[in-house]
Amino acid sequence: MTSPLRGKSACIGLGMAGMGEAPGRNSMELMVEAAWLAARDAGIALQDIDGVFSATAVHSMPAMSLAEHLGLRPKFSSSSNIGGSSFMAHALNAALALEAGIIDVALIAYGSNQRTAGGFKTVSEPLPYEAVYKPRVPLTAYALTASRYMHEFGARREDLAAVAVAARQWANLNPQAFMQGDLTVDDVLAARMISSPFTKLDCCLVTDGAAAIIMTRADRAKDGPRTPVYLLGAAMEHHHRMISAMPDMLNSSARESSQRALAMAGCRAEDMDSYQLYDAFTINTLLFLEDIGLCKKGEAKDFIRDGRIAPGGTVPVNTNGGGLSCIHPGMYGMFVMIEAIRQIRQSAGDDEGPRAPGGWLGTAKLCLAHGNGGVLSSQATTVWGHADTL
Amino acid sequence: MTDAFAGPGPEAQFQSYLEDGKFMIQRSKTSGEYVFYPRVVNPHSGAADLEWVAASGKGSVYATTATSRRAEQGGDYNISLITLAEGPRILARVVGIAPDKVAIGMAVIADIQDVEGQLAVVFQPA
User: Fold this and answer.
1) Is the CB of B112 inside 8 Å of chain A's CB atoms?
2) N or C end: fewer C-beta atoms under 10 angstroms in chain A?
3) Which of A125, A127, A129 to mutate to test the interface with B (most CBs of B within 10 A)?
4) Within A207-320, where are the H helices?
5) DSSP per residue, A108-139
6) How far apart (Å, rounded) are the C-alpha atoms in residues A292 and A259?
7) Do β-strands B34-35 and B58-67 pair in parallel, antiparallel, or remain unpaired?
8) How does residue A1 score in pLDDT terms, banded at 50, 70 and 90?
């Protein structure tokens, strides 16, 4: 049975601001700039927006602040925060509100100046029962997961490092990526140890950055200047907040979220032209390749050998350079979706700016954007497609 | 309203036991299943049937990380996930051994110690 939401809404515009470093600009200012650019990209007036969705690590009610800054009076808004995957969840909520006729135009936005403001900060409350041990949230949780993964499946630090190397190879093709330059497995292993088994280069960047997309119903999506990119499937699931409460540390609910999102889209995991997987740490990419079903549990380390997920490989993953080498302003989910959408738009002939040869896939019509939040806690998967896939 | 919701909540009770030198966890009166961290209702069944019992303190290391920290701030420290003999998993520090020498599968035993100014359950090699 075809899902009533499949392809009923589309991204018609997007914007990014303060990519990397944005000295002198605060988080909300960057988010406003990205929203303004997204509206211009979509060819709509700001006043056309009647649904506002936003989450950040430092604002308790960002949708209200954003609407106020932009002079909007939303009929529906949500500042629901489930961590870095909030934006995929917002896309699902926007699709529901659009299809129900509650709103006509949705804005989803994120902004952060954490790098120039002195590092990662969050309004997230300390975890009861765990704060006393001074875990570095979220780093400690992912390091623990990596330790168990290595123990269980015989993975080595070199296997984790290979993920960082592939991400950097993509970043080297993308002038918008914050980190550039050669990176080897040995470089990753030799970097400063942060929380074993992770060195600094197993961990995401700490950058500034803002991003926004505009979504509308499919019947209106074709009217704009940009190639509409349709939301074919979206699903989410979460089951823990603290890593100690994760039912099975080696199987995230990305399995459930991706299965349902792909079922809604009517696709198989292997059908995608690219896989944008929230890579806060190197272990994430390995886990998610397995959880979305591209390889068996414990086999991602073999799956990624010989550059399979790197530029020129058969399974393009994190083609912007990822959270590891492109951008990671505290919460990265918005950029994960935007990369999926941009690959499809560029393949359809839209001008998405320059990349070195291979940086744009050129033939992408179906892209998966998977978001992760908290400590492998919330998982939200979206599938985006060109009109030909409807 | 049942008696399960009377008096101090689970966090306050856990802390009170801790200050008395006891590491207590919860058990379902119905199924016998153990629960940690302390909850209002049993997350396995939804039943409001939890009672306090003394933890055996026995466990084994399920996952572990050595957190790097400057020497002047106290130096590196261990954080591990411990699978308690009763079943639940707890995040805590393993002490009495170099932070990077804690190994997955290692048998550990609970103790209550001062952790940087606060009383907490820690684990030591058994």
Assistant:
1) no
2) N
3) A129
4) 218-221, 254-265, 282-291, 300-303
5) EEEEE-TTTTTS----PPPPTTTGGG---TTH
6) 7
7) unpaired
8) low
Q: State both tokens at B56.
A: 């055996």
pLDDT value at position A128? 87
On the 0-12 / 13-18 / 19+ scale of CB atoms within 10 A, A101 is exposed
Task: In whole angstroms, give the CA distance from residue B36 to residue B17.
Answer: 14
pTM of the model: 0.97
Amino acid making up residue A157: R
- Residue B92: phi, psi to the nearest 5? -165, 175
pLDDT in tens, A225-263: 999 999 999 999 999 999 999 999 999 999 999 999 999
Distance from CA of B57 to the nearest CA of A (A): 16
| C-alpha B91: how far from chain center | 6
Q: In terms of Cα–Cα distance, which of A125, A237, A124 is closest to B11?
A: A125
Q: Which two tokens stand for residue B84?
A: 């308690």
Q: How far apart are CA A261 and CA A276, in angstroms?
A: 14
